[in-house]
Give the backbone structure.
Amino acid sequence: MKTFLLEIVTPERVTFKDQVEFLAAPSYEGELGVLPGHTPLLSELKTGLLRFKKEGEQETVAISGGFLQIHPDHIVVLAETAELAEEIDAERARQAAERAKSQLASAGNGPDLAVAEAALRRALIRLRATERIQRKPRP
Ligand code: ATP
């Protein structure tokens, strides 16, 4: 099976670097699917779920905004934060969501509103990523 190198990088670390068969990334125009041999491209990504297939297994990554660069032989995802679903602390995300909801309730219309909305979006995406693991069929 044909593969390409996928690198998922944040300012803090390299979250993932390996050969994969398929990638689906959350672009503003909808989910962007990438197979080996895709045309070079630069696309902005929103907070959402990124999926890839490695050795036939699907993996899910929660990212909070960034960029996707498609090069002829490799793909780079530069994200503000990125966690593999397995790395996510669901309880922490639940608490972050609760905090963001109470901030939303008291934020008014100022800049705090956008900050709380972004925090809530990140937390809900992290929770969705953890739900994907729970739904994975067991071998
Ligand atoms: P919190 O309020 O729980 O810190 P946050 O949305 O403000 O959440 P971020 O600023 O997006 O957190 O991320 C800070 C760092 O913590 C990043 O390295 C990110 O990957 C990591 N991180 C955030 N939430 C979680 C989580 N629920 N599980 C694992 N890592 C997390």
Q: What stands out?
A: The longest helix spans residues 111-135. Helices lie at 90-106, 111-135.
